[in-house]
Amino acid sequence: MTDEQARGAVDTAAPGGAAPPTVTPPASPAPTPAGAPPTFPSVPAAAADPGRWGRVDDEGTVWLQVEGPDGAVTERAVGSWQAGDATEGLAHFALRFDDLRTEADLLVRRLTSGRGEARATLRSATALRERLTDAAVVGDVAGLAARLDAVVAAAEQADEIERAARAGAREDAVARKEALIAEAEALAEETTRWKHAGDRFAAMVDEWKAVTGIDRRTDDALWKRFSRARETFARRRGAHFAELDRARTAAKARKEELVAEAEALTDSEDWGPTAGRYKELMAEWKAAGRTSKDADDALWARFRGAQDRFFARRSETFSARDAEFTGNATAKEALLAEAARIDLSDVDAARAALRDVQERWDAIGKVPRERVREFAGRLKEVEDRVRAAVDRRWQAVDPETEARVAQFRSRVEGYEAQAAKAHAAGDLRRAKEAERQAAQWREWLAAAEQATR
Known about the structure:
It is a single chain. Helices cover 71% and strands 5% of the residues. The protein is mainly alpha-helical. The chain has a four-stranded antiparallel β-sheet with strand order 1-4-3-2. A hairpin with a 5-residue loop joins strand 3 and strand 4 (73-81). The longest helix is centred in the middle third of the chain and has 50 residues, at 141-190. The chain is elongated. Mean pLDDT is 83; it is low at 1-8 and 12-28.
């Protein structure tokens, strides 16, 4: 249908403004038995055969034909068609009917599927039924009226069921909230498990919010009872923790002192004593007691952070030192290998080579602590070999060695004679001094004799 044809379709009550004839709808369907699914009369689409439900006269008036219960057909004018032939006019008004039929079908599907409230479906079905009385359409109006009457009846029945369900749900909701109130009141008066009870109150608030379906006035009254229980619990818990606060205040002050000392030690390079002091601070921390959780956590974070920074610095220093000492050990290993190859046949060259090794040894620096004794012993072995070679040469070329031995022996004999003489004279002091001198020279004599062998 063109736009011009659509503009030519005019709704009207009747030719000449006469009132439309009354259309008698079929009797309302009987209520559906409880438990049985509702049934809805079917209504054919009008667009398939518009001439079955109406006509357009020679003047362009569109007539709706309605068959009554007695079989008699009555007509009422529903519009005027001036823009084309009669077939197009009937099709236009039949499509209007089919639109209403589609609306009714949607209400049936909404009702049978259970989507939405029955009360809203009832309002829509009632309004559509009222519009149908004087609707400018061509189609099975009586059948559609019967279908809508069935929808209205089914919606009323469903609304009654929903109201009963809402009432039952309200009773259940009230019972659930009263149970929460009873639990809250018991906790408020009796519990000393403060954290557990606090967590439970928080959970009960969530449970409370999840319970719906109670009228505002009743819900407000129940909430006031629940709130009073929470306030009672809060007062008891507050009094308990106020008592603890005094002890926590003292613990906090002590821990702040410990934190201040721990932070002051962070940059210390006196590694051993400072590490020992941190251990003492840890013991004092444990003995100080607990303050509030937030304050305790914050102080602990500072205390532990100071410790971590100090020990991290110590670890970095030790790691760097260990790496240096390990390198030094490698260098000294090479130096010992070089020292082991010193040629002892040339004593002067051997002594010069040893001095060079010793100078480079000192310049290299320290080795890991666990290897200090090992390296000292190995270097001493080299030094002893060189010294022994020097001593052997000295003994071989020194002409005064025997004279020196004889001199030492003479001195020993002389002091021994003085000691004997003093003893004979009863002078114990002089005797003791002469014996000491004799012992000293005796040691030197033994060394000199050993050097000549």
